[in-house]
TrEMBL record:
Domain of life of the source: Eukaryota
InterPro entries, A to Z: TPR-like_helical_dom_sf, TPR_rpt
Chain positions of TPR repeats: 306-339
Matching PANTHER family: TETRATRICOPEPTIDE REPEAT PROTEIN (AFU_ORTHOLOGUE AFUA_6G03870) (PTHR45641)
PROSITE patterns: TPR
Protein name, per record: MalT-like TPR region domain-containing protein
SUPFAM superfamilies registered for this protein in UniProt: TPR-like
């Protein structure tokens, strides 16, 4: 799928940027569009084998706004001449959508996906290449993950099943991307709190993984699925079974020095201690997780960093430190609102902030009223059928957020 030369050197990066500006400011013809798409594709970070792009964020930041501008031109059908997509263009948009998801810019990611999915359909009219289906599946997979972030779990599951169908049709039976989508279905069912289905897809994903030749990549994928399993066990109330997995997972992720998965693991470990009401250990775990995102990964705007702040606030609330709880809840909300003001996690945190404000005994009537209205707007958007005259409960709000923040 990825046979183009690596054009990511500094000089070619500047050429890619210059090419976009020249195209948008000058003669917007098809050959110029094709050259720009190829240069941007060569210079932009590429997601391979389901790997995250964290180490390439700086490079991506230099180009992403230019790709967004190019996509807007592609989608603007009122301008002449009409632009036809190329293989490099859909590859570029597939990588860019994933990059924007990682950077938590969900709105721009959705816009990129609109252009990318349309471009795939246009290319299918002139080519029967299975590569179009593969890239189409990549973009559908990203779209499904964005549904998870927005609490749209039914839509997420439907899209992932379509991705699975495409990949089974065009890829070998034991291809790693089939294992990947099976794992994503496990996560989707966990977010939807359908734990039996989540366990079934976990086993299917592991079965495919274990058929691959032994390698560090295979072992990492297996350990990632064990990480998800520990989260599932906690969600199902099997605390001690989950705890048994922590030492091995910690050793492995420390060996490969993956700050993202170390942070994820320590959130889960903090949840374990919180459930056991060992608040001191819980806070240590959440602080260590936060350090991974803020200091090691330099990803202060990562949604899991906001989840850490929220959970530190939960610990403080349980311990009666209301000032600290309120501070952490507000900081978590502030970070999430910068990315997506309608993120369902905000509704969950607003609820706990209101709870903390009520416990202070002070006059916070106006702020609490504002929080409750914001919660209702988020709930109404995600659950239009919800009777808002009834009490909004923690259980309802938990059903709208993915498993990591619960």
């Amino acid at each position: 799928m990825d046979s183009s030369p690596d054009l990511s050197s500094s000089g070619l990066l500047h050429r890619a940027v210059g090419g976009v500006k020249q195209f948008l400011d000058g003669d917007q013809n098809q050959p110029a569009f094709d050259r720009v798409a190829l240069r941007l594709y060569g210079a932009f970070p590429k997601q391979r084998n389901g790997q995250y792009l964290h180490e390439h964020w700086e490079q991506g930041n230099l180009l992403v706004n230019h790709i967004v501008a190019l996509n807007k031109r592609y989608l603007n059908t009122s301008l002449s001449p009409q632009i036809s997509p190329t293989f490099y263009y859909i590859r570029l948009l597939s990588n860019c959508a994933w990059f924007l998801y990682e950077k938590d810019n969900y709105h721009e990611a959705q816009t990129i996906l609109v252009g990318g999915l349309d471009a795939c359909e246009q290319l299918k009219l002139v080519s029967k290449s299975p590569e179009i289906d593969i890239i189409h599946a990549h973009m559908l997979n990203t779209s499904a993950i964005l549904d998870d972030c927005g609490g749209r779990f039914d839509s997420q599951i439907e899209k992932l099943k379509e991705v699975l169908e495409i990949r089974k049709r065009v890829l070998p039976q034991d291809h790693e991307e089939i294992s990947g989508v099976l794992n994503n279905l496990c996560l989707a069912y966990e977010s939807a709190m359908q734990f039996q289905e989540a366990l079934e897809y976990r086993e299917k994903s592991l079965e495919v993984c274990r058929k691959h030749p032994k390698s560090m990549s295979r072992e990492t994928k297996i350990q990632k699925r064990e990480l998800v399993y520990s989260r599932l066990l906690l969600a199902m109330g099997q605390l001690e079974e989950a705890k048994k997995l922590f030492p091995g997972l910690s050793r492995y992720f420390e060996i490969i020095q993956n700050w993202y998965f170390i942070g994820h693991l320590y959130i889960i470990m903090g949840n374990y201690h919180f459930a056991k009401r060992n608040f001191q250990s819980s806070q240590r775990c959440f602080l260590h997780a936060l350090k991974q995102y803020e200091e090691v990964g330099k990803a202060t705007d990562h949604p899991q960093a906001a989840a850490c702040l929220y959970k530190i606030g939960r610990v403080a609330l349980e311990e009666g430190d209301l000032d600290k709880a309120i501070e952490k809840f507000r900081e978590a909300i502030k970070r999430l609102q910068l990315i997506d003001p309608m993120n369902p996690q905000i509704g969950r945190i607003n609820f706990m902030l209101g709870k903390a404000l009520k416990r202070t005994g002070g006059d916070h009537t106006d702020e609490i009223g504002k929080l409750e209205k914001e919660i209702q707007v988020i709930v109404q958007r995600l659950r239009p059928q919800q009777d808002l005259s009834a009490e909004i409960t923690e259980a309802l709000l938990d059903s709208l957020v993915d498993g990591i923040i619960r």
